[in-house]
């Protein structure tokens, strides 16, 4: 295993076609939008999908969705308690700097998502809190143009519980709403910091696994809100710098991705967009380009 030595930047372009990419629970689970009407997908939602993909590939994940868990633990605290050496340090009380470093090393060595994204270990009843700062940072995704949202009323064909007043009549819980983005092209960016990678033990091999997870982000991610095929990774751009600090700032690298609509049609698709990297100002740094599945 080779500890990551040089900075990495990446960008992912994906499409949403009649799906809800990330519902807002404070807005009736409608797709997220900013004040200008552009669609958004939170960085937390993106990391959830990455964890799921990495878990599918056999990686050990601390923050598992309950419906996808691969062990008998029903909480993060229970999963941590199963690692005896780590649990002993967290419940001992205020530890020395050496013990805290040992606990961080144990957690990072045991779980991929901890050494990648970091984690705060602060549980009720524990005497020691531990914060791990991960090297992988990911922005929220934003659509290139404002998105149109369609809402539809839906009904269930059967009551969840019998109507006690009149069993032949439907109850109020048979009514509901579904929301979707008709079509949108989204992009998000990210970086991997080698200084933090050295601390958490994040390796170059780990980075390659992350790259593959980004390329296949929506594989095995279907749901009623996101039918299979309704969300697709179209492009992945991957830059590997030749030094720790990076040949250029992440902001400059990310700005090199140019996405423009070049034509219009009655049925919008990714074919209407030009997706290119303008590397004229990034001398010596070339993007690796990958298509989705």
Automatic annotation (TrEMBL):
An individual GO BP term: maintenance of CRISPR repeat elements
InterPro entries: Cas7_Csh2/Csh2, CRISPR-assoc_prot_Cas7/Csd2
Region (Disordered): 19-38
Any matching Pfam family: Cas_Cas7
Stated name of the protein: Type I-C CRISPR-associated protein Cas7/Csd2
The encoding gene: cas7c
């Amino acid at each position: 295993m080779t500890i990551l030595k040089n900075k990495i930047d990446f960008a992912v372009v994906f499409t949403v076609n009649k799906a809800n990419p990330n519902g807002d629970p404070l807005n009736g689970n409608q797709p997220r939008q900013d004040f200008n009407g552009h669609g958004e997908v939170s960085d937390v939602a993106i990391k959830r999908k990455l964890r799921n993909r990495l878990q599918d590939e056999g990686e050990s994940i601390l923050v598992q969705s309950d419906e996808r868990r691969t062990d008998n633990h029903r909480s993060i605290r229970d999963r941590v308690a199963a690692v005896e050496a780590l649990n002993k340090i967290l419940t001992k009380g205020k530890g020395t700097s050496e013990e805290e470093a040992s606990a961080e090393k144990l957690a990072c060595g045991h779980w991929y998502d901890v050494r990648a994204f970091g984690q705060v270990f602060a549980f009720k009843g524990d005497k020691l809190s531990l914060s791990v700062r991960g090297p992988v940072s990911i922005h929220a995704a934003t659509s290139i143009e404002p998105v149109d949202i369609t809402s539809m009323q839906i009904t269930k064909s059967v009551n969840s519980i019998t109507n006690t007043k009149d069993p032949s009549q439907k109850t109020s819980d048979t009514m509901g709403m579904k929301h979707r983005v008709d079509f949108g092209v989204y992009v998000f960016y990210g970086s991997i910091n080698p200084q933090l990678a050295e601390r958490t033990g994040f390796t170059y091999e780990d980075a390659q696994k992350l790259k593959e997870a980004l390329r296949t982000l929506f594989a095995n991610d279907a749901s009623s809100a996101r039918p299979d095929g309704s969300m697709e990774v179209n492009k992945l751009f991957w830059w590997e710098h030749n030094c720790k600090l990076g040949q250029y700032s992440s902001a400059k690298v990310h700005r090199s991705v140019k996405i423009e609509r070049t034509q219009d049609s009655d049925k919008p698709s990714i074919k209407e967009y030009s997706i290119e990297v303008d590397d004229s100002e990034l001398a010596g740094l070339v993007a690796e380009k990958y298509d989705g599945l």
